[in-house]
From TrEMBL, chain B:
Family the UniProt entry places it in: Belongs to the SufE family.
Name of the molecule in the record: SufE family protein
InterPro entries reported for this sequence: Fe-S_metab-assoc_dom (IPR003808)
Classification via PANTHER family: SUFE-LIKE PROTEIN 2, CHLOROPLASTIC (PTHR43597:SF5), SULFUR ACCEPTOR PROTEIN CSDE (PTHR43597)
Lineage of source species: Bacteria, Pseudomonadati, Bacteroidota, Cytophagia, Cytophagales
Species of provenance: Aquirufa novilacunae
Length: 408, 138
């Protein structure tokens, strides 16, 4: 039996959770959109700006030295978090979307040619579709799609049929943002590698819930955002294999990413700086380090057990509501429940739940191809984190029932 | 001549003034949505659609004599309730009256959040579109 979390103590670390919204206690079930931040993250931001603020890497004064060390410390923590072989392979971006675009515009531009193929899945967020469409259009390549079952499971047999030597890249998410399916990325990676294709895994929805070992998985590229892992917005991470990152042309030009500049030619900096042009988001990267410390201090089995219990409890309760259908019933899911109710538009449910102080997400979740697959205009999505409680689920279900009474 | 635009707004403010708690207010709004005169399917065209991020709104306008007459619909019932009020306030008025209208009732009845959700519903675009029609008919 795993150690149980002290939820009250954990909730005390998240100031935002303790407030009234529309005269009711806030229930925050929109964790897949962004997680809340522990106080340690805000403290780190304030401490940085109050004590250490300086531009990094080139300054020789004390503040520059402190800021640089703190910034690079987050990179070290991330290398450990992902089990990366070196810190040089951790590149800071502004978010998942920026990481995917970076790979599309560098690896994609250098390696995808006319008649080549890029495989995505029917479960993808628009940010793991559109960057590939742009490069495919530019290069005359084709996009192929791994189909998804009615339950929300990727069809791996179909992927086997799609794979061939023309496939240069397979880009799939680790976890679906819209319906919570955990995809079998180890299997996808080994199948793709067997035909010589590289793989990009969008980890935006997985990093807060699942451990990732980039070496054990033999990952080529892994991208995610700090703000979905209890850190600040505006920071993202791209991990890449060294030989791939070294072979990739630079993305954005500017300061920091160069070795020497002259009008007869410029040489580029080493990894990871080659891909970090300009002054980076220093303060938020440093504060992200505090988020990583916070979440890693919680025993991961206890964290997973809490989320699994929340998912099971909410699923059971929601299933008892007449006319409610859960969208996405894959056997392997994180704590996300997407649902629709007969004859009721998701937006109406979201508007009324907000009046009860309950924050969920409604709409297409930036996954329109998936909504088209299920012939839906959108869904309601409740997404949980370890700081959520069973009492909150009870109140959510009671208020949902009242909401439906008002609407039906 | 029908009622002046501001008289209708005052009427709505009075109607909503009867409710003390938000749930009664929203039940009334939902009821208004359900009672909205159905829009002819012939007008539910791609041309008439106003796209919101989450729900679609259809708007049709025509001139009857000196007056602009609107018909509208939405997939979401709360948006439909808002539409019903906008039609009640603006339809059957002259282009000049519509263009001069200041829709203060929305704020007064505590529904301005629905016009602030610019990306999620088509209401802001709908009000703009109603004014564009008025301009085109003037």
């Amino acid at each position: 039996m795993a150690e149980k979390l002290n939820i009250d103590q954990i909730r005390a670390d998240f100031p935002v959770l303790h407030q009234q919204v529309n005269k009711a206690p806030l229930v925050y079930f929109d964790n897949a959109a962004t997680t809340q931040k522990p106080k340690a993250v805000m403290d780190a931001l304030i401490a940085y700006y109050e004590q250490d603020n300086a531009n990094i890497h080139r300054g020789i004064h004390t503040l520059a030295e402190r800021a640089t060390s703190a910034y690079e410390l987050t990179r070290k923590k991330l290398a450990a978090f992902l089990h990366a072989p070196s810190t040089d392979q951790i590149i800071f971006t502004s978010g998942t979307t920026a990481g995917i675009n970076l790979v599309a515009q560098t690896f994609g531009r250098a390696n995808v040619g006319k008649g080549d193929q890029i495989i995505v899945s029917n479960l993808e967020h628009h940010s793991n579709i559109v960057p590939w469409q742009l490069i495919a259009e530019e290069k005359g390549a084709e996009i192929k799609v791994i189909p998804v079952s009615d339950e929300g499971v990727l069809d791996i047999e179909a992927l086997k049929g799609l794979l061939n030597p023309k496939v240069k890249l397979v880009a799939v998410n680790h976890v679906s943002n819209a319906i919570g399916t955990i995809n079998p990325i180890a299997e996808i990676i080994s199948l793709a590698h067997a035909v010589g294709a590289k793989v990009l895994i969008d980890g935006a929805q997985s990093v807060a819930h699942l451990a990732v070992d980039v070496q054990a998985l033999d990952l080529d590229f892994f991208v995610f955002s700090a703000h979905k892992l209890f850190g600040p917005t505006g920071v993202g991470v791209l991990y890449g294999k060294r030989e791939l990152l070294e072979a990739m042309p630079p993305y954005q030009g500017g300061g920091e990413m160069i070795k020497e500049v002259s009008f007869s030619g410029t040489t580029y900096n080493e990894l990871p700086y080659k891909f970090e042009a300009g002054t980076p988001n220093i303060a938020d990267v440093i504060a992200f380090g505090a988020a990583l410390d916070y979440v890693q201090a919680i025993p991961s089995e206890a964290l997973a057990a809490q989320e699994e219990a929340l998912l099971a409890y909410a699923t059971e309760k929601l299933q008892s509501i007449p006319g409610l259908k859960i969208v996405g019933t894959a056997p392997q899911k994180i704590a996300v429940i997407s649902f629709v109710v007969d004859g009721v538009h998701p937006q109406d449910i979201g508007v009324l739940l907000d009046k009860f102080g309950i924050a969920i997400r409604t709409g297409h979740h930036c996954a329109q191809p998936l909504m088209q697959r299920y012939d839906l205009v959108g869904t309601c999505r409740a997404s949980f984190s370890f700081y959520n409680t069973f009492e909150e689920i009870d109140r959510f279900v009671t208020c949902l029932e009242k909401t439906l009474q008002m609407l039906q | 001549m029908g009622q002046a635009i501001n008289d209708i707004q005052e009427e709505l403010i009075e109607e909503f003034g009867l409710f003390e708690d938000w749930a009664d207010k929203y039940e009334y709004l939902i009821d208004l949505g359900k009672k909205l005169a159905p829009m002819s399917d012939a007008y539910k065209t791609e041309e008439n659609v106003i796209k919101g991020c989450q729900s679609r709104v259809w708007l049709h306008a025509e001139k009857q004599g000196d007056l602009v007459v609107f018909q509208a619909d939405s997939e979401a019932i709360i948006v439909k309730g808002m539409i019903s009020m906008l039609i009640r306030v603006l339809s059957n008025h002259t282009p000049a009256e519509i263009l001069a209208a200041d829709l203060y009732f929305i704020d007064q009845i505590g529904m301005s959040q629905h016009l602030a959700q610019t990306r999620s519903n088509g209401l802001v675009s709908m009000v703009k579109q109603m004014q564009h029609y008025a301009l085109a008919f003037s």
